[in-house]
Amino acid sequence: MAIISIANHKGGTGKTSMCLGIGVYFARNGYKVLIIDMDPQGHIAPGLGIDIGYDDPSMADVISLKKGISDIIIKTNIDGLYIAPATIRLNYVSETLYNTFQRERRLKKALADLIQDHLYDVILIDCSPSMGPLVENALTVSDYCLIPCEPSSRSIDGLADFMHRVNEIREGELDNKWFIVLSRVKKAAKLTNEVIDEKLSEFTNRIIETKVFERETVNQAQIAGVTVFDFPRAGDVIDNYTKLGAEISKKCGIKKHSSKKKKDK
Ligand SMILES: Nc1ncnc2c1ncn2[C@@H]1O[C@H](COP(=O)(O)OP(=O)(O)OP(=O)(O)O)[C@@H](O)[C@H]1O
Ligand SMILES: [Mg+2]
């Protein structure tokens, strides 16, 4: 099983869209997938057309130790895809964590049984655009970290700060296990793209070759409350996420062998 955080302290870089895109890719290719929403904005459930009310069971209950993760996991209507949703309530729980002993280990403890029983092939964690306790929790339990990054000078410059924080949290354990994914790349912005490629050359081996291109259909699918895989005229976006998913699968060594005997919730 591979646990992958999709994180960047910068907002709007395409974390959630990428999480949904590759999550659906893996599920459609026969992997058993859990997406954990660690962002109080709670965009994962609506991205799959699922309504979650403020008081419904969610990650806030797990992080505040009121429920186990299996009590809140929802089976989606995509075969093999499960989610642990979040709502804004997670924000209030996050604020209570600041002075708590081992505050960064709550998610790791909550996932211990899932990991031991190998219930999923891949767990994707959608992170909030911050460096606070929720991101600490996600990174503490992760085997890999994907960092969606927009092709702008400021985004690339901000990467060093984020990587510094990742290294602080994991004391170097994720050293060779983080990857930058260029996202929301505008094909027409040739000059910018060249400058960005040059700037990124210092991160050799850490760059995922497949770039995610800016496509209006991503927004339209979001408005319609479906993933791009279920949206008409999204063929090129589907191809894009398919290529990305396949590359990530190789880089992170994701294999299909979750326990089939365990009962689906
Ligand atoms: N490849 C893309 N093409 C076009 N629009 C995109 C693409 N990826 C994301 N977007 C749009 O950009 C906005 C931000 O995307 P998304 O929510 O995935 O980013 P995020 O990093 O999760 O944001 P936040 O930091 O707020 O959690 C959304 O409106 C989304 O539809
Ligand atoms: Mg997001």
Describe the protein's architecture and organization.
This protein has 265 residues and is of the alpha/beta class. The chain has a single domain, classed as Rossmann fold (3-Layer(aba) Sandwich). It contains ten helices and seven strands. It has helices spanning 15-28, 44-47, 59-63, 89-97, 106-116, 133-141, 153-170, 190-199, 216-224, 235-251, and strands spanning 2-6, 33-38, 74-75, 81-84, 122-127, 144-149, 178-182. Adenosine-5'-triphosphate binds at residues 11-17, 39, 41, 43, 129, 184, 212, 214-215, 218-219, 222.
Q: Globular, elongated, flat, extended or rod-shaped: what is the shape?
A: globular
Major sheet details: 7 strands, mixed
Please identify the structural class as seen in this structure: alpha/beta
- The CATH topology annotation reads as Rossmann fold
Number of domains: 1
Helix content: 40-55%
Count helical runs: 10
The CATH superfamily is known as P-loop containing nucleotide triphosphate hydrolases
Strand order in the sheet with the most strands:
3-4-2-5-1-6-7
Instruction: Report the CATH architecture.
Output: 3-Layer(aba) Sandwich
Total number of beta strands? 7
